[in-house]
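User: Could you go from structure to sequence for me? I need the amino acid at each position, not a summary. Structure tokens:
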């Protein structure tokens, strides 16, 4: 029996029959269906805004430079040793909901997240859960910095 949606569901079927037939499909046939088939198509206005946002980010961030003047929009970034670290907090790749023009350093949660006691707790939680991403289990500057990067990455 062929369960392809185009053959098994005719225009004469009502919505209830379609739903029943979909539930009766074998798993291998369900997996072939487009998971986004019911999603609305983005309007030209929304698509244009996404493209403009991407171009704005790509235009501002010179990927070949570690100089803050080339990628920073918050005016608080410092020169970092690697290109990977040379990213502004106002970059669109982060999820934090910052007010326009407000640097992450000015956010009230930043002080809490980077508190030494919180960073120590994060490290001990990682280690107790079996995650050993650090070279040792000492509470030292290197591991605290790792904990801060990890915490801020998750928060942003």
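Assistant: Here is the amino acid at each position, in order:
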């Amino acid at each position: 029996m062929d369960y392809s949606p185009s053959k098994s569901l005719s225009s004469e079927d009502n919505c209830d029959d379609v739903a029943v037939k979909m539930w009766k499909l074998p798993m291998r046939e369900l997996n072939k269906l487009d998971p986004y088939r019911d999603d609305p198509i983005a309007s030209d206005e929304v698509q244009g805004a996404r493209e403009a946002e991407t171009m704005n980010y790509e235009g501002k961030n010179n990927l070949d430079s570690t100089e803050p003047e080339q990628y920073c929009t918050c005016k608080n970034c410092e020169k970092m040793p690697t290109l990977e670290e040379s990213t502004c907090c106002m970059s669109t790749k982060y999820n934090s909901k910052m007010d326009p023009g407000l640097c992450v350093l000015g956010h009230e949660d930043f002080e809490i997240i980077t508190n030494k006691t919180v960073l120590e707790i994060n490290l001990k939680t990682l280690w107790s859960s079996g995650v050993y991403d650090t070279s040792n289990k000492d509470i030292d500057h290197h591991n605290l910095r790792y904990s801060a990067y990890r915490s801020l990455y998750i928060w942003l």
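One structural detail worth keeping in mind: Residues 1-11, 56-62 have pLDDT under 50 and may be disordered.
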